[in-house]
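Why run this: before we spend reagent on co-expression, it is cheaper to look at a predicted model of the complex and decide which construct boundaries make sense. The entries below are exactly what would go into the expression plan.
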Amino acid sequence: MTALTDQPLFELKDSRLEYQQKTVLDNLSLAIYSGERVALVGGSGAGKSTLLKALREQRPDQVAWCPQQPGLVPMLSAFHNIYMGALDRHSFLYNLGNLIKPLPAARHQVSEIAQTIGLQEHLYNSVDKLSGGQQQRTSIGRALIQQRDIFIGDEPVANVDDYQAESLLKLICNSHPTVVLALHDVEQALQFCTRVIGLKDGAIVLDAPSDQLQVSDLASLYQAN
Amino acid sequence: MMGFNSGSNRLDTSAQALRRTSFWFAVIALLCLFCADLDISTSDPWHELGLMTAGALSPSVWSWPTLLTSLANTFAFALQGVALAAVVGFCLALGYKFTIVRAFCAFIRSIHELFWALLFIQIAGLSSLTGLLAIAIPYAGTLAKIYGELFEEVDLAPGDNSPAARHSLIDFLYTVLPMAWRPMVTYTSYRFECAIRSSAILGFVGLPTLGFHLETALGEGHYSEAAAYFYALLLLIGTLRFWLQKWLLPVYLIGVFYYLPPEAQISWDLIVRFVTDDIVPAPLRGAELFTTATLGEFANWFTLLWQQQMWPGLINTVVLGQISLVFTGLLALLLFPLNSALFFKRWGRSAGDGLLILLRTVPEYLLAFVGLLVLGPSMLPAILALGIHNGAIIGHLVGRHTEELRLRADSGRGLNLYFYEVLPRIYRQFLAFLFYRWEVILRETAILGILGIATLGFYIDSAFEEFRFDRAFILILASALLNISVDQFARRIRLRLHLKTTPESL
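The model came back. Tokens follow.
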């Protein structure tokens, strides 16, 4: 992608964002540029998910999307759920054939991804038989297979243990030039992202490069008024 | 090839069991296709279809009094029948935990209303009593099942908290009935719509409803006249919800019983003769039972009946039923997007669902009759009729079910959306609907024999025409047994596949 550095990938100007007909964020202005790795932090209900959804809608065809509720098809295998990210790249007949019986090329491609996210053992089990963490990894796999430049994830590693979370975040950051993540773990936010945006009470209360921040700076975001 | 993959390469998903079941049903239906007669025997089906279309576009009423009378009769039989069925069904449902009651209900509903009509015509003639009973009896069996299952379902929670007097009538009235009431009303009103279709179809065996004039007009090629009767039926069903208000129900009930009091010229001698003589197998009549000669003759009589009618009738019923079941399923899967907001927005969806409701409103018997006129006698019109009617019913319900699905913002579009996201999610519910419908499809399959397709109904109808009521009676029992077995089998499959077992409006 030939993004000009002075042209933001995502831009909001005095925007009002709603969730279920209620205003969650008001007078919001924000610009995110290509190559940035942005962490959204803030208490629950601060509007992180709403903001991420609004960002995705600005470039739906460039964003690999990893929502908080994985929204997988429970009765299909992890293989098929991951492959769903690549439906657009194949003909309908190939997709249909692959649904009936996994085809060699698709198997190859999906297993490579499964290998990197540690899912190869359960790749052909239906996701309703997988744990919450395994489902989350499936969802990440579905984003990775899209091979897009921007990754937007809403708590993408909330259900896996710290060690796995670290390697998954590393993988996500290495595979996408631009990353926007909602994270409740502020240490992960500082470690993996170049920029931290703090949300509280419907507004941005913090926006700084992560190398200028300490874990303690972010603590106030989680305190009640 | 897959050296780097340490896990198993075989799919092990919860979709597999559903896929396997569907696969075997499809294989059986394909095998049945080889045994089925699917010829088009009319010389120019397009010509006939053209005439029908022309007729449908230029409906004309030849006699308003005839039209309105048959319309009123159709409504009257349906309302009387369902009212009586609701009362009897409710009483039966109170004893639904007893196996004998369940079996009795299963038996009376396994015999199609047209067969009941053919039986009662022998005793009570083409009378208003025949029309009422033909609808009331099988519908009582169906409603008893539905009410009974609803009572069982709601009987758990609040009742447990009430002191001592469990299962007393007061207990029932205060806990179970209020909770079951709403679904009972919904289901009964849906059944009323079906009863109007049944009532109209009773005309095909001679009762004075819309079907009587439809058959005559269609048979004589007066398609404009037939169209008028057909539109009257659609209008009657389509406008129900506007004028059949709950508070007006007593008025309508008194009205229909005043307009068409259930009565018949009944001679008790005739009834006694019918029950003790006519339907007794010929070799047993008046003969001494349990003598070698009588039993030998009976064995011969039964063997002949079995070889020449019962066995071929059963085989044809099952063959046609299996093909129709799978065809119904395929059509339902093809049609449900018409009633789904995931595929069609607003106007498109309203139009789509309108089409499904229209297809559902046309009785399958009438569709098959029209199909026979166009395509000639074979299984083809029957398969088309059963598939279209039932496929539209299931398609409508599955489409409505898709409203409950929550899809990701980045899910695919068009066919990819259909096959990868929606189909797997609705498939379990779809199969539950289809297996519910199986018994109904088989009942209809048998009855289509009256139109000349060699299912059990064909032999039953011929036996009635030849006044061989003993044969007719045994054949009706055979069809009842077949339906009960299929119902049990379908129930077992539903349990095995963990399909939802409580019915909706099917």
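Chain B has 20 helices and no strands. Chain B touches chain A through 31 residues (CB under 8 Å). Bring this page to Monday's planning discussion.
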